[in-house]
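User: Show me a protein chain along with its predicted structure.
Assistant: Here is one chain, sequence first, then structure tokens.
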Amino acid sequence: MSSSLYEEIKGWKVPFHKSKTILAKNYLKLLANVEVIGIAGGVGKTLTQNTVYSVLSQKYPTVAGEENLDPTFRIPKTILKAKPWHKYLIIEYGIEHPGEMDYYTNLITPKYAIVTTICEEHLKYFESLEGVFEEESKIIINLPKNGYAILNADDAISHRLASLTKATVVWYGARAKRGVKISHYKQSLHGSKYRIHYGGDTASVHTKIVGRHQLTSAYAAATIGILSGLTVKQIARGLSIVVPPIHRLNLKITEHANILDDTYNSSPKAASETIKTLVDLGKGKKKIAVIGEMRDLGTYSDKAHKELGLQIAKTRINNLFTIGKTASLVTKSAKKAGFRGTVVNVKNTKEAIKQIKPLITKKTVVLVKGSRHAHLERVVSGLLHRSTALKCYHCGKLK
């Protein structure tokens, strides 16, 4: 068992959680006919979970885990929520430390494994992209022979996974030679729309999900929908009603403000794609990027923040705000690279709210992006004239 699993839990609670895990593992014996779908990867796991759930639920009884709960607790809780009559059980395999994927796949081995992307994440512990690959790949290696490895054809490093499994490999994405195709993508501050195509059938999708990069989840869910015998129309209906995960590129549109709330977490790839979304959705409007620290990147941290600044420098974003010392590398890098907008680094969320509020109008789009424990959701609340108070397990009460 990975020593990291319960390190942040109060000692007296550990036996309770361990007992629940043992109960869940034994309860699995009653779920012999339930097929397990595992979702792994560096970004987009929760959206993919929600999307797969929404699609498969159009035809089958399906159960999925709660958002914003560590896998150590979420996986047993999800197992115990399942019933013998469910067809599918969706499990999100999130890893932060070496050895965790071994523990999770030993607890519950999926028949279907979806990998979103493999990218720089938690490098403080994995040290390199190769370290991340080795850990993420274990879900594919452990698949049974009658299983399915559902891999992202648009992610170069994921191609290495195909040779590591005895399961059937199914590719999804824009570069997949066969399978579901997506066309006519358009997004706005009201959501996005596109068409899906498979086997000569076509259907339209209208959804609250924005961000072209988030089509990865749609491709993956549609692919497993086809494998499960759903029609294109059923898949499209499921894709249209996906519930966006909280604080993951959520649209917060009021009569006074347009805000993209992407404050749940941040990594180099996620931050880069979110900046592209801000630029696209902000066409013809004033664009403000509010960037917090990308955490757990170890020795790669400085380089990652500087590279994000270089990317922003090439855009027409009007105002760049960064919060905290580490994130200040983004503003410094952008400014050095000739960024034409205004750059400001502030010490905390309270100061950010104070300086950004006067800049917001209905013709402004504000992106707020940062890692979880930076609590940039408080910036979103403040800009929407709501209370910024919250209670965090790690940080305590924040006003």
